[in-house]
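Following up on my earlier thread - several people asked me to post the actual chain instead of describing it. Fair enough. Here it is, all 227 residues.
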Amino acid sequence: MSGAVIRRFGGRPTADAAALLETTILDAATAAFLADGYAATSIEAVAKGSGVAKRTLYARWDGKPALFRAVVERLMTRWLSLAGGWTPVMGGAVSGLAGLEDALNDAAERILAIALRPEAVALHRLLVAESARFPELPRMMHQAGASEGGIRIAALLDQAVATGMLPPGDTVFAAEQFLHLVLAGPQRRALGLGPPLDEPAVKAWCHAAVRLFLSGVRNERLPHQAE
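Reply from S.P.:
Thanks for posting it. Predicted structure:
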């Protein structure tokens, strides 16, 4: 039985077995919530899908709301690890306007590569539907995703301001507008509110959004941060 995850004789499961069991349950819960929605997903269905008794779920989460929060938190942690790929781009110095445009194009493509993943679109739809029931979850998703992205974009814009490529102003506000410009249209289309974008169309959207953004911030002074 070497290499297998085994239960201690007559006692609690090993740490590896407990972690594997939690992953199995969360996988089943994620699939159920994203496919069927919150209201239509029951603890019984998740227990059946993961091959465990209901009491096993209740030993880890005190009900469906807690299980749903755990699913959302795990998805966001997974996507933030993917977004870590921005760090070398955002952390290095950019050379000239062409370098700034390339860095923003790279950021925009990475943002949409995560935001348009099928499970990300499904979660976005679910959180819109359940925002009244779980008002903290959309805020948490924004803080973990859009807020982190905004910080990195603002840091890039700060570099451009410091080297004279862009006029001085509120780069945090400008970064937020950049994210809206990149995300809003493709997300709405992915939700069914317009024709979806294929991979070449997403890339073209990113480049057009970056050109429009840079045209605006280069030709108009950035707004200054409110006192």
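The chain has two domains: 15-60, 74-219. That should answer part of your original question.
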